[in-house]
Amino acid sequence: AQKITQTQPGMFVQEKEAVTLDCTYDTSDPSYGLFWYKQPSSGEMIFLIYQGSYDQQNATEGRYSLNFQKARKSANLVISASQLGDSAMYFCAMRDNYGQNFVFGPGTRLSVLP
Amino acid sequence: EAGVAQSPRYKIIEKRQSVAFWCNPISGHATLYWYQQILGQGPKLLIQFQNNGVVDDSQLPKDRFSAERLKGVDSTLKIQPAKLEDSAVYLCASSLATFVGTEKKLFFGSGTQLSVL
Hints:
The complex is a heterodimer.
Chain A: E1 3-5, E2 10-14, E3 19-21, E4 24-26, E5 32-39, E6 46-52, E7 60-61, E8 64-69, E9 74-79, E10 88-96, E11 103-104, E12 108-113
Parallel strand pairs in A: 2-12
Antiparallel strand pairs in A: 1-4, 3-9, 5-6, 5-10, 7-8, 8-9, 10-11, 10-12
Chain B: E1 5-7, E2 10-13, E3 19-24, E4 31-37, E5 44-50, E6 53-56, E7 65-68, E8 75-79, E9 88-95, E10 107-108, E11 112-116
Parallel strand pairs in B: 2-11
Antiparallel strand pairs in B: 1-3, 3-8, 4-5, 4-9, 5-6, 7-8, 9-10, 9-11
């Protein structure tokens, strides 16, 4: 069974600084997809970034980048130049290439300080 | 483009009562998911549909939960009878992917917040 671990229940970062949110995963499938979602206090789930297991380069979307280390089974999210609006819960998720077991981690609460 | 629609937004019921949630995915999206998110936790997949067929319902408590997606469009999730531990936000999501295992993005609805008293 697949599993996602996010070891940081809460993180603080100063506005305009970069922050890394950790995510490790466990799967025996050779092909899979990794996702990061943001959930502000309003409750909506906002897609941030996607990384395929066979993608050669780390994914980037604006201020978000995914530090993908396949051998270590880690998929850390890097947010550059943090903004106050980045304060939210962040979830790492994974699915296998049969589309099943689309699992989410427990999340990390990020607080951006002015 | 209209997003994933869910209703109701909030629901309060007493234990042992029944409740139903409705979801209308983005037009053309073949895959539909129902998640349960208990306060302070990550979403837990309950059931996944590809068109009107079930792909994964391994974590659906089938003695009390049921879901259907007639005609491969909108979907209904039902709880009967509800228990106190069912208090959670129920999220619906959809994906454009027509082949299972190729999803690169899930679109989520606003969720239904259920309180069981």
